[in-house]
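Handoff note, outgoing to incoming analyst
You'll be picking up this chain. Sequence as last confirmed:
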Amino acid sequence: MPWDGSIPMVNLRRIPEHCLISTGCAGILILMWCMMPAAAAVCDGPPNSQSFILFTGGCDRTPQVLPCTQGFIFPALPSPGGDFPTQYYLDFGDGSPPYYGTVDGVTHTYRSPGQYSLNYMAGTQCDLWRQGTHVLNIPAPVNYTPVIAACGPAHPLAGFSATPSTGFAPLTVRFTSTSTGADAWAWKFGDGGTSPTENPSHTYITPGTYPVSLAARDSCTGSVNMEDNHGFVTVTATAGTLAISSTPSGAIVFIDNVIKGITPVTLTDTTAGTHTLLLTRTGYEDYTRSFTIEPSTPATIGATLTRGPAVPTTPPSSPYGSIAVTSIPPGATLILDGRQRGAAPAIIPGVLPGNHDLTLSLGGYDDWNQVVSVGSGQTAAVNAVLVVTGGNPAGTGSLAVTSDPPGAEIYIDGGFKGVSPVTISGLNPGTHILSVTLQGYSNTSANITITAGQTGRFPVVLGKVHTLSAIDIILAAAAVLMIVLIAVVVMLRKETKT
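Most recent structure output, in case you need it:
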């Protein structure tokens, strides 16, 4: 229950532990206020520490009386970066619904003796929590007659919805529990944040795809049901508008080493922040500069290209190489030797010859990693097939199918699985029949073998079906008729001579 006023109640959210001094006299608490400046949220971690205080004169009376009302205070210090605790939680350990609120104190009535394990927490507005436990012993009164509490049958069923589930960072999502048969909740938001409230709001700071889970619990029986939803929230980086022109026009545009078009061009997918621009055109020196995109302010860049030296007839070979990278699905971030180099598909230029560590990262998919060997003046090709995080249940495998040309319909054992390029997850180990169809091309079928825990690859080049048009048929008929006429003329001449 909330604080009932029988014990003086003060919100201790902004009082450090060293400001609390217990006199030990009938539970009187002397509070010494320490002025601490408020700070903006930095989301660096949970509260630095937390205390747990039991008021005397509650369930520790002598002689013992039941039921008894016990008061608790559980203040916490700010995080190391200065985030103050703003929300508090206490599970009383006796099967009753737990407390959740913005005040760091509460009273609770116990009706039976026993040893109760209390779980208490304090969290910041970033949903980062400090947790502790305390064991409360309540002795039985003299001549006490035990009362056996009965819990009704409980079958919690977890479920939830969210609004919005997609948007630009920072994105505040309002979660609603649709669970039944529960009086306690435990949320995990996928970015390290958690919450014990029924219908929380959570703000995602970093772009990415996040799984969300909810554990719904009946406190009396302890029964728990879990709902998991992979890739439930998608947060994208805030994008701005960027217009790029050059004199002369026709320059190839690279943003962070990713080709974006030919000048003049207007881009609407450039994320907020600082980027590197490269313009290149034959016969002109490369134009490079850094620029910053603001979400609400369109940016314009006009570049004047400088003519370069005459191109020699036989250009010298470059000591550098490059890496051409594609990913399925596209859009994976490229990290070469620990440095971010754009997003797939892309060509990474200026790579020294030798072995390099390449990682592809995309929200909702397992990181892809490989050592790539690059030769002087050569381009190494990398085609990465990403696997959905958790997409393969235990004991199953995946198949990545690519086709030339793309857009073919993919069937496994007669069931439609998508359009190429596609990665099909959750396939049972063993032999399956793969069918690839595309209008205007010959159908392709093959037996493929799936291995548990692995992703197989099946590239296919489709053969075009050549059909005769009406004109082709007329020309062919005319050619046949011409041959027949020539044969007839030859025969008539022979008969005339004889």
